[in-house]
């Protein structure tokens, strides 16, 4: 592509704003599950009550995510990894960024099909998403696959954030880049732990029944 520089810059920007923000929001929403089904449902209802929610989702999430995913797959296909020749830390991170990008794409597509698509088709009510996640989390095989998807998504975002800071001229020197490595990898650990705590929370028996069973409504 003759304008690949600009395509890559847009790809980098969208990976942080708004796709990265969406990942963080999704993390905080799911983390409410650690407080119980009612707290999780309250967060779901708050998101559903946002004004112009569908427009916000299309413009602020799905279109940027689609561009980032499709162009990211194109970049991954084009990339030439030289880890076996050099083995440098950043070359390894470069390779992992491409691998986790593909895994994250597959995971998000699968997760959306199991949740948002089922809601759109009328097979699952918003109020029953906790029950759906319970069924997912209590299946040992799917639980492990979700762990792989979670680690891939959080690593891809956090390591991509490091690249974003470099490519946009925010961390220029080696010292700044080493410092940002510590920060972004620390963020990776924090987000991964919170996501795993959320997924584990859905295994609780309280998510196996409708929320009405807890509230008495």
List keywords for this structure.
disordered C terminus, mainly alpha, SQR/QFR_C/D, 3 helical TM bundles of succinate and fumarate reductases, transmembrane helix, 77% helix, 11 helices, membrane, 217 residues, 0% strand, metal ion binding
Describe the structure.
- One of its GO terms (cellular component) is membrane.
- The chain contains eleven helices and no strands.
- The N and C termini lie far apart (58 Å).
- The model is unreliable at 213-217 (pLDDT under 50).
- It is mainly α and 217 residues long.
- 77% of the residues lie in helices and 0% in strands.
- The longest helix has 28 residues, at 140-167.
- The protein has a single domain (2-215), classed as Fumarate reductase/succinate dehydrogenase, transmembrane subunit (3 helical TM bundles of succinate and fumarate reductases), CATH 1.20.1300.10.
Give the distance, in angstroms, between the N- and C-terminal Cα atoms: 58 Å
**DSSP helix fraction:** over 70%
Mean pLDDT: 90
Number of strands: 0
Shape descriptor = globular
CATH superfamily: Fumarate reductase/succinate dehydrogenase, transmembrane subunit
Summed up, the helix count is: 11
Largest sheet: none
- Approximately what portion of the residues adopt beta-strand conformation? under 5%
Binding site for heme: 26, 68, 111, 156
Subcellular location: Membrane
Pfam family, one: Sdh_cyt
Transmembrane segments: 12-31, 51-74, 95-113, 143-170, 182-202
Write the SSE topology.
Elements: H1 4-16, H2 19-31, H3 37-48, H4 53-78, H5 83-86, H6 89-114, H7 116-120, H8 129-137, H9 140-167, H10 174-201, H11 212-215
Helix pairs in contact: 1-4, 1-9, 2-10, 4-6, 6-9, 9-10
């Amino acid at each position: 592509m003759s304008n690949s520089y600009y395509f890559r810059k847009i790809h980098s920007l969208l990976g942080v704003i708004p796709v990265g923000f969406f990942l963080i929001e999704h993390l905080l929403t799911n983390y409410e599950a650690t407080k119980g089904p009612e707290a999780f449902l309250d967060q779901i209802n708050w998101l559903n009550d946002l004004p112009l929610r569908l427009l916000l989702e299309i413009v602020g999430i799905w279109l940027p995510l689609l561009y980032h995913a499709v162009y990211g797959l194109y970049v991954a296909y084009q990339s030439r990894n030289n880890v076996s020749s050099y083995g440098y830390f950043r070359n390894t991170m470069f390779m992992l960024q491409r691998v986790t990008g593909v895994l994250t794409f597959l995971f998000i597509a699968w997760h959306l099909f199991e949740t948002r698509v089922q809601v759109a088709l009328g097979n699952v009510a918003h109020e029953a998403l906790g029950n759906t996640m319970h069924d997912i989390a209590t299946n040992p095989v799917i639980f492990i696959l979700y762990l792989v998807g979670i680690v891939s998504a959080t690593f891809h975002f956090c390591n991509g954030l490091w690249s974003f800071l470099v490519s946009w001229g925010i961390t220029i020197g080696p010292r700044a880049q080493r410092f940002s490595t510590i920060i972004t990898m620390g963020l990776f650990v924090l987000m991964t732990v919170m996501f795993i705590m959320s997924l584990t929370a859905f295994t609780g028996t309280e998510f196996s029944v409708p929320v009405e069973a807890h509230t008495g409504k």
